[in-house]
Amino acid sequence: MADTGLSEDQQAHLQLSDGSASLHGNLVAQIRAILVDGELADGTRIPEGELCQRFNVSRTPLREALKVLAAEGFVVLRPNRGAIVAPLDPAEIPPLFEFKGALERLIGLTAAERASDTEIAELEQIHLALDAAAVKGDYKLYTRLNYMFHRNLAAASKNAILTQNYDVIQQRIWRYRFIVNEYEKRCRESFAEHERIIIALRARTPLDLAERLEFHNRRTAEAMSAALC
């Protein structure tokens, strides 16, 4: 992995995982990464045999992992015909981001008051790594760091139910994010929005942080819709 300026522990969490250290959780994360990176095209059949060999698992755990990914919207399960990569559907962007916007506001209201100084320092470190990735034009790394930033900020709310629901919606959105952040203009805009989020977090101003997160969410939704039209 490229030098990000992050600790080894932080770099280990850059993959889009579900936070589980189990074999099942790791398998889900590995297949999800393949789908997010576009290794398998939309609408193509999932090559179960190849994946079993690649990850050294039998078909039973593989199919259990595919069920999880189907629930997240990454694959479509077809009875007796196997699973396929779920096609990207621009029509689901508005409702996904409408729900996510409500979560972002709650994260802002709670994290501003509950985040520890250590958590804020870690978020600032990720923010600096985001800047480095944007400057290098490494948009895939930028997107993964962006995921880490928002996930850590949600965790700083100290509300487990909020964090769990936020993680679910983020997983649904993630394939779209890789498309949008590959545009340099949006990547730089996104970083500028993150800069304002960090300022509000440092100041511990709940309403300001909530509004900046909502604005960032709204602009990302607009960029995604435009990119997929």
Description of the structure:
- It contains ten helices and two strands; from the N terminus they run ααααββαααααα.
- It is mainly alpha-helical and 229 residues long.
- The chain folds into two domains: 23-85, Winged helix-like DNA-binding domain superfamily/Winged helix DNA-binding domain (Arc Repressor Mutant, subunit A); 90-228, Four Helix Bundle (Hemerythrin (Met), subunit A), CATH 1.20.120.530.
- Strands 1-2 form a two-stranded antiparallel ribbon.
- 33% of the residues are buried.
CATH-level-4 superfamily name of the largest domain:
GntR ligand-binding domain-like
Reported CATH architecture of the largest domain: Up-down Bundle
The number of helical elements comes to: 10
* Strand count: 2
Mean pLDDT score: 88
- CATH fold label of the largest domain: Four Helix Bundle (Hemerythrin (Met), subunit A)
- In the CATH scheme, the class of the largest domain would be Mainly Alpha
- The amount of helix comes to over 70%
- Helix and strand string, N-terminal first? HHHHEEHHHHHH
Find the structural class using helix and strand composition. Answer: mainly alpha
Low-confidence stretches: none
Alpha-carbon Rg, integer: 18 Å
Keywords: DNA-binding, Transcription, Transcription regulation
Protein name: DNA-binding GntR family transcriptional regulator
Pfam families: FCD, GntR
Organism: Martelella radicis
